[in-house]
Design brief:
Glucose Permease (Domain IIA); alpha+beta; 2 domains
């Protein structure tokens, strides 16, 4: 063992010790600096990923609004088409009624013409007889008398002429009454026809208005479908970018040294009972867009919608605690060995980034933040640096596993 005197006598002996201390300090500084750089890089990429998730959420919200508008327009179109069919049926019925009235008018006009003809004939007979009465009664009284075989014969002839004239007058009055009745009937039918024609024109105008409205809605629907297509493409592009960032984060996490050796044994159920699994792992119909989408975890809902406490599934370090776009309030725990559990849609965050949590420890409360339709926990198990469970059609690997394998 060196003494202070030895160092004073032989100062060159202190050189290796000084170099050793400097190298240990330098290596420690480099290692600490590297870890800090990695943590800073992970934080930066996480923030970038959060921004992407927020943009995806905005696109999904916009998509949801447009899908709702699309459903409303389709409903309006269906109703308009129903109205148009009803108007067309009404138009056909009105046309039939108009045709029937026109046929009736034609018949009445024929009867009116016949009545006019009978009246004209009767008027001609009456005029002849009146002229005869006037001639024999007022002008050539003696001619009628001389032509008569006797005075009684003269009176008989004159009386007969009067009777005939009276009958002609009565018949003429009857014909005139009949003609007036037929004319009134014709006038009524003409009025009915005019009303039907006016109604038919109104129905036709309504039908054209409905068709214009339907055409406008079809044009809006076409534009909306184009916007929906752009929304879906934007979401797909953002998803691809998210996958790229997640790959980078996985590489950074794998590069950093973990304090833990990985999952050992079964996971702790990540939410206090009573609960039920509201959506499983795998393909499902997205509750917002209605399209098939990959669900990379399980949804566990509390009974009666209570905000049950969220529990750490295993011992590990909280590597993320905060808002994460569509995940809402989210916590990620690194358990070592490249295994990370994720807890999202939380209403409260009880654990903070850098905390070391134990298995079953309370880390938050269930909620419905982010891309969510009700109070529940979205729980994922991710294995970074291992063989992917599946690959998306775009070619991006998915390192999420079915959490039910761990319980």
């Amino acid at each position: 063992m060196f003494s202070g005197i030895g160092f004073r006598k032989h100062p060159w002996l202190m050189i290796p010790l000084i170099l050793l201390i400097i190298s240990i300090f330098f290596l420690g500084f480099v290692e600490a600096n590297t870890i800090d750089e990695l943590n800073n890089e992970i934080d930066a990429r996480q923030e970038e990923l959060e921004e992407l998730e927020e943009r995806k959420q905005e696109e999904r919200s916009s998509l949801e609004q447009r899908l709702n508008r699309q459903a409303a327009l389709e409903q309006e179109l269906e109703e308009l088409e129903g109205y148009i069919r009803e108007l067309q049926e009404e138009q056909a019925l009105l046309q039939e009624e108009i045709a029937a009235v026109e046929a009736e008018i034609a018949l009445v006009e024929q009867e009116l013409a016949e009545a006019e003809e009978r009246l004209s004939y009767q008027e001609e007979l009456l005029n002849l007889r009146l002229r005869a009465i006037q001639q024999y009664g007022l002008v050539s009284y003696f001619e009628v008398l001389f032509e008569s075989s006797s005075f009684p014969d003269f009176l008989t002839r004159l009386y007969n002429l009067s009777i005939i004239a009276s009958n002609d007058l009565r018949l003429m009055e009857e014909i005139m009454a009949e003609r007036e009745l037929i004319q009134a009937w014709k006038d009524e039918l003409d009025e009915s026809k005019d009303e039907l024609e006016a109604k038919r024109r109104q129905v036709a105008e309504n039908e054209e208005e409905m068709k214009r409205a339907a055409a406008e809605r079809e044009a809006l629907l076409a534009e909306l479908q184009e916007e929906i297509t752009r929304n879906l493409q934007a979401i797909a592009d953002l998803e691809e970018e998210s996958q790229r960032l997640e790959t980078m984060i996985r590489e950074l996490i794998a590069e950093a040294e973990s304090l833990f050796s990985g999952l050992e044994g079964e996971l702790h159920w990540p939410i206090e009972p009573p609960t039920w699994i509201s959506s499983g792992y795998g393909w499902r119909r997205d509750p917002f867009s209605g399209y098939q989408a990959w669900h990379g975890g399980i949804d566990i809902a509390p009974r009666n919608g209570a905000a049950n406490f969220i529990l750490a599934a295993a011992r590990g370090e909280v590597i993320y605690s905060g808002w994460n776009g569509g995940y809402g309030n989210c916590i990620m725990i690194d358990h070592g060995g490249g295994t990370v559990t994720l807890y999202s849609h939380l209403s409260n965050l009880l654990a903070r980034t850098g905390d070391v949590v134990e298995r079953g420890e309370r880390i938050g409360r269930a909620g419905t933040t982010g891309y969510s339709t009700g109070v529940h926990l979205h729980f994922e198990v991710r294995e970074y640096g291992k063989e992917p469970v599946r690959t998306y059609p775009s070619g991006n690997p998915d390192y999420r596993r079915n959490p039910m394998e761990y319980f």
